[in-house]
Amino acid sequence: MSRPFLLTLFLILTPLSLLAGVAFGSVDLSLGEVMCALAGKEAGLATDIVWQLRLPRVASAFACGGLLALAGALLQALLRNPLADPYVLGISGGSAVAALAAMLFGLAAAAVNLAALGGALAAVGLVFALGFGRGGNMVRLLLTGVVLSAGFSALISLLLTLAPGAQVRGMLFWLMGDLSQAQAPGLALGVLIAALALAWWQANSLDILGLGELKARSLGVAVRPLQLGIYFTASAATAAVVVEAGAIGFVGLIVPHFVRLLGVSGHRWLLPLAVLAGGSFLTLADTLARTAIAPQQLPVGVLTALLGVPLLLFLLTRRT
């Protein structure tokens, strides 16, 4: 498929996925009621549901999906590893440890979010100091992230063991990714716009970096500043997601591969298409999580894996 055609296709599918997220939920609303509510033509229950509940959640889902897909594409380019995803460097692990500790002490939701942000930033700083320190390189950065992730996993298991039974369910929902409390998408949307702009500005340099560090240097690319910029951009994108919705897995791994399997390689096209595809995918997954067994809701991270695994296997089979 040509890249302009894919961009046009995604620009059509994205509003449809957002509309589906607003139209479907545990409360049945007709398409006419939804359109009237969006247009602000009448006040009532439908308008309250659309504007106060569904629209903020749909916006959060799209922003988080776009951020995860963008972070995954950037880290795969940075580490030159197709298995890299936004959580490979331990960012979600550090955030999870801090958030679960806050839950264990019974802190309010706002404090839990602040703890998650602090944990993510601490993990970013620790991985940066150890991986990019004296003599640091991409292999050392990756190994540092993997080792720290293992340590954070042990601490998470310890916190779950110590937690009272009444708190374990909320902790597990957070670990699996949950958008039920995501009602303030402004931060995630702002980070998405800024991160995409910064990454797209360096798209040509990312293409050259894929040829190898020595080749990139010989072609005039400032490799180390580029690596640092991409690392912190991907880290900020991931931190914004874990603060907004917890650790939603698999989106950052599958979506960049999905876009590449459609024939897109250059980052100038790959990055915006990955954002649109990731946002649409997570929006649809969250809509299904809200409606599959309504009024009960499923953790959206469970749906992303259940939907993503067979999709990626199918695409890989068709490609080979």
Walkthrough of the structure:
- The chain has helices at residues 3-23, 31-39, 45-79, 91-104, 109-131, 138-162, 165-176, 186-201, 203-209, 213-218, 223-245, 251-261, 267-291, 300-319.
- The chain is mostly helical.
- It has one domain (26-318): Orthogonal Bundle (ABC transporter involved in vitamin B12 uptake, BtuC).
- The two termini are 17 Å apart.
- The longest helix is centred in the N-terminal third of the chain and has 35 residues, at 45-79.
- α4 (91-104) runs antiparallel to α7 (165-176), α5 packs antiparallel against α6 and α12 runs parallel beside α14 (300-319).
- The chain has 14 helices and no strands.
What's the gyration radius in Å? 20 Å
* CATH domain class name: Mainly Alpha
The CATH homologous superfamily is termed: ABC transporter involved in vitamin B12 uptake, BtuC
Q: Which parts are unreliable, with pLDDT below 50 for 5 consecutive residues or more?
A: none
CATH architectural label: Orthogonal Bundle
Q: Total strand count, please?
A: 0
* Shape label: globular
Determine the N-to-C terminus distance: 17 Å
Helix content: over 70%
Number of helices: 14
Largest sheet: none
Keywords: Cell membrane, Membrane, Transmembrane, Transmembrane helix, Transport
Family: Belongs to the binding-protein-dependent transport system permease family. FecCD subfamily.
Subcellular location: Cell membrane
Pfam families: FecCD (PF01032)
